[in-house]
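Practice set, problem 2.
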Amino acid sequence: MFLLLILLASWQKPNHSNSSGLTVYAFLNTECPISQQYVRRLADLHQEFGKSGVRFIALFPLRTDSPAVIEQFRTEYKLPFAGLPDKKARLARQFRARVTPEVVVMQSDGRVVYQGAIDDWYVDLGKHRPQAAHAYLHSALDALLNGRPVTEARTEAVGCLIE
């Protein structure tokens, strides 16, 4: 399984460097309304941190999320980075990701430096704030790129269960 993570970490589209050594794995689900609503936020983070060499990869652990369904989702919701099926939710299980959306930030040495919610916009299923009060993923990436420790390395994501 670790080999698969190394292969994923080394995969990149042409002209997208990973000079930071950081990769954000975003577990998404094409049928989950919360995943759908977070794509714009992920796109904004990709736009901001991709310039600093952070790579973003979406992983889809739902069995029905075939490559064609994932590509349709990427087009419909304007997801600007690669989306790959997580067959049999193997990576989700390895990372112990429980819900979609949930993110994992990994350094090039394979160490997980942040895992959890993108932010705290959603407080429970069907319940969200007018806007997020804490931008966990943004804060983690900002800290890592500026040589500071991540203050909250683990948060609880709210979303659709990965089964």
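Problem 2, part (b): a different protein.
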Amino acid sequence: MKKHQFEEFERLSDEIETLGNFVPWMTHSFGEKSPQAVFHAQIIADWNTVVQISEHFVEELNK
């Protein structure tokens, strides 16, 4: 966009639309043929919170 390549931007935007949506799947075990489940966005957000808290905790321990 900064280079004012609007036609290229439109072309790439249209191409992206044809790719579909990313859906993060998980399964307990591929070997056991466990059922698949979709990661809910809240699980990912909660995990990010746990990671951030852990990082702050480690920073405090290193002081």
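Answer key, part (b): The helical segments are 6-19, 41-61. Strands lie at 25-27, 36-38.
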